[in-house]
Amino acid sequence: MLSYSRLATLERENRDTLVLNAYIDATELDSVARRAWRKTLADGITAVRKSLADAPHAERKSFDEAAARLEAQAAELSDDLDGAPGWAGFITADDILYGSPTAAPPAPSLVWRRGIATAPYLRVISDDASVILTLADTRVADIYRWTAGEPERVERIQAHAHVGRAAHMGDAPVAGFHTGTRGTTLTDAAQRAVDVGRERMVRDVAEQLETFARPAGWIVVAGLREVAMDVMKHLGKAASKRALYLGGLSTDASIPEIARAAAEGRDTLRAAQERDRVNDLIDRAAGRSRGVLGFQPTLDAVGTGAARDVSVTATLFTERPDDAEALALAVLTHGARLHEVSGDAAARLDAECDGVAASLRFPSRTGRGKLAGVAETV
């Protein structure tokens, strides 16, 4: 996946170049249906070629060369993209600027234009946080990383209890051996060792979850409830905000079950984060603090470098693609971050904020004004 900085560099270097922007969605689970993206891609190339019927010969030639490069690249891809949910590529007549699987399914499209279509890619980047999931019981904890496709086990942590063996166990007692009628019995010592081993495992699991989840991954803790809740208690404050306990997943769960649990946990955590972000943005703006609401005020704030995090809904991308591209370019140019929200958060953002809002690094009077039903923003 491209980073924000690398995408910004590609966009800047190819702003005046004709680029074939290809976004492939391959999330169908059926083995036959997952090959459907090939026909979708072929149909898209045909449609773009027809739309260029009246274009200058040089442009039509450039498109044909870029399309041939894309078709050759697609021929090398497996039907299921090796389990990836999608693919993105930027191709010119002379070169494949970039082509790689995506960590999240992009909105499928094929666009021939000057410059890179950055808005669809930013939507994929904003969905790129991985899920770190652990399945734990009293003896062992397995840690998995899941972004899309099949979870990968990245760590196994075991609880080791060190228990001494009684000198006469299985033999006749020897002089000096005490049965423990006063003080600690062998059973008590063994249980204490087990408890110490489990506590050590719980601390190690929590530490590894935080390490694997940095900087912004989601954390899902499952398995034996008692152990899972202990792991949750040992997570740091920052990690706890991105973590949840998920019941109903046994420690012998299958890989598909683990993948479904990871997706469920991610969706739950993301929905809560998005709801809090949007509510905070609207509260900030209403209080004349560091928040701005609406498309134009947000675009202006991004352009001045004042915006930090920009929240948008799918409506902006699907119904106003030109506005979406303008905002995406501004975000890349001026160092903001874009987050696409859904569910209840998107419903409120659409209803009250024109589908767009942003938190600010510093107060700005740019875009000062009122939205219908919304308090005046700074």
Describe this structure in words.
This protein is of the alpha+beta class. It is 44% helix and 20% strand. It contains 12 helices and 13 strands. It has helices spanning 4-13, 36-51, 57-76, 118-125, 186-213, 225-234, 237-240, 255-286, 295-303, 314-319, 321-334, 343-353; strands spanning 18-25, 86-91, 96-102, 109-114, 131-136, 140-146, 152-158, 218-223, 243-245, 291-293, 307-313, 337-341, 356-360. It has a 5-stranded mixed sheet, sandwiched between helices. Strands 3-2-1-4 form a 4-stranded antiparallel sheet, sandwiched between helices. A hairpin with a 3-residue loop joins strand 5 (131-136) and strand 6. Helix 9 packs parallel to helix 11 (321-334).
Instruction: Output mean pLDDT.
Output: 86
Unreliable residue stretches: 166-170, 176-181, 366-378
Determine the number of helices (DSSP H or I, runs of at least 4 residues).
12
Structural class: alpha+beta
| Lateral strand order in the biggest sheet | 7-6-5-8-9
Please tell me the total number of domains. 3
Tell me which oligomeric state these chains represent.
single chain
CATH architecture of the largest domain: 2-Layer Sandwich
Q: What is the makeup of the main sheet?
A: 5 strands, mixed
Percentage of residues in DSSP E strands: 15-25%
Question: What name is given to the CATH topology of the largest domain?
Answer: Nucleotidyltransferase, domain 5
Q: In total, how many beta strands?
A: 13
Q: What does the radius of gyration come to?
A: 27 Å
Q: What string, H for helix and E for strand, traces the elements in order?
A: HEHHEEEHEEEHEHHEHEHEHHEHE
